[in-house]
Amino acid sequence: MSVRTAVLIKQVPDSDEIKMDPEKGTMIREGAGNIVNPLDLNALETALSLRGELGGSVTVVSMGPPQADIALRETLALGADKACLLSDRFFAGADSWATSLTLAKALEKLGPFDLIIAGEKATDGETGQVGPEVAAIMDLPCSTYVSSVVCDGKCAVVRRTVEGGIETQRIKLPCLLTVLNDINEPSMPTLRGKKSARRASVDTLNAADLRLSKEEAGLVGSPTRVVKISHPKISRKTEFYSGRELERGFERVLEILRELAVL
User: Fold this and answer.
1) CB atoms within 10 A of CB 70
2) Is 140 helix (H, G, I), strand (E, B) or coil?
3) Which of 161, 131, 142 is nearest to 61 (CA)?
4) 204-221 b/e with 16+ CB inside 10 Å = b?
5) What's the burial of 4, exposed, middle or buried (CB within 10 Å: 0-12/13-18/19+)?
6) Mapping DSSP to helix (H, G, I), strand (E, B) and coil, where does residue 138 land?
7) What Cα–Cα distance (Å) separates residue 83 from each residue in 5, 63, 125, 185?
8) How far from each other are the two terminal CA atoms of the chain, in whole angstroms?
9) Consecutive H or E run containing 149
10) Helices in the chain by DSSP H: which ranges?
11) What is the mean pLDDT of residues 190-205?
12) DSSP 8-class letter at 197
């Protein structure tokens, strides 16, 4: 039995380049280098492996600005069958709930799907909320922290890495899974895949296509807000020794190391 799978991906800034708007409390994405969220590549690899075993199709869905088209073409180069970008100025500033609602509406429009797979979390937000929230909105069973999955087309048997050990679950399809990075090693795109992805079409859906009102999407539709942004202040008590005081400086270092039980 073939499995129709959807993979949720996100284009995220390189970790070293993340900047926040102190007034809006949202991330500044303009001018930053962007990559596909690493854990989402594990999700895609899982979907491609299941397609190889069971047949079916893999559709990748992402919400973001027009530049996220680049990330979707990367997934097509890796072997995804279709890609769809959810892009609208009304989607900007969405929190995890507004993002999840938008993704759920898109999945319902593009589906039905037997299986939905996402990375456990995104490197820019680190919430791990979008996958479970999409499942809740779509009324689907959900399993998180998945480190392996076996599917027969009717049920998915997953192993979850949880505190204190491994948990095994058997979940009836359709369902949603969020995966960890140790589930597999993402593949590299081939030259043929890159050429094919360059010519492929990426579908685009906006708020009107998804029948989302302005009150449901983006910053306006987000029940949570970043009300304050602060940067950690690092202060250190220092001692300087130079010239004839260097010997005393060495002795002081030894004293500190003894106090810390290092020596």
Assistant:
1) 14
2) coil
3) 131
4) ebebeebebeeebbbbeb
5) buried
6) helix
7) 12, 11, 23, 21
8) 65
9) strand 142-151
10) 38-54, 69-78, 96-110, 130-138, 191-199, 246-259
11) 90
12) H
Residue 9: both structure tokens together:
């991906």
Q: What secondary structure letter does DSSP report for 205?
A: E
Residue with tokens 């429009």: 109
**Residue 57 amino acid letter:** S
Distance, CA of 28 to CA of 25 (rounded, Å): 9
pLDDT in tens, 219-239: 888 888 777 777 777 777 888
CB 9 within 8 A of CB 60: yes
pLDDT in tens, 28-63: 555 557 889 999 999 999 999 999 999 999 999 999
The C-alpha angle 133, 131, 207, rounded to 5 degrees, equals 70
Q: How confident is the model at residue 218 (pLDDT cuts 50, 70, 90)?
A: confident
Identity (one letter) of the amino acid at 189? P
The predicted pLDDT at position 21 comes to 60
For the CA atoms of 8, 13, 19, 24, what is the dihedral angle to 10 degrees? -30
DSSP 69-117: HHHHHHHHHHT-SEEEEE--GGGTT--HHHHHHHHHHHHHHH---SEEE
The tens digit of pLDDT for each residue in 78-126 reads: 999 999 999 998 888 888 999 999 999 999 999 899 999 999 998 887 7
Map tokens 């898109």 to a residue: 106
